[in-house]
Amino acid sequence: MRRLEDRPLPSELMTIIRKDQQWLDLCSAAAPIFSTCSKAEVYSVIVNNKTQRIIGTGFNGVPSGWQHCRDGGCPRGTSDVPSGSTYDSGPGLCFAAHAEVNALTHGDPTQFHESTLYVNKAPCVGCQRAILGTAITRVVCPRIPWMNLFDSDDRIEVEFVY
Ligand SMILES: [Zn+2]
Ligand SMILES: [Zn+2]
Fold first, then answer.
1. Less packed terminus of the chain by CB within 10 Å, N or C?
2. pTM of the entire predicted model
3. What is the rounded CA–CA span in Å between residue 147 and residue 78?
């Protein structure tokens, strides 16, 4: 019996997989360089599917001019709340805007309908909601261990990478 991994992939699919890996590697490499959140180093790029040009980028960080999380700017940075706990209240409160939302905010919405959003961490429910509110048709990210809203919407295709 032939195993799945031995089966040759059509060259077009191989190209997509290679490109996906390149953009995700970029997010993983850029996350610790740019993120100013001490708890989660995240970087996101939105890429036009045809031109393969970046049309939006964002990282985890507080609004411009605020004290960075890693400099003591938010309660979460100095607390030991478990990963996945709420960002919005109590000791887990964090003022950083998430990478995906920053990429959407600073991206070119006129190109979203033929673009892929890449991010090196599984999107939280709030970011999933924000992405679903745009015309973005594809997301490439690590497997989502919490609620996955993308499952309920046929307009968006999600590729889990690890
Ligand atoms: Zn923070
Ligand atoms: Zn998020």
1. N
2. 0.87
3. 27
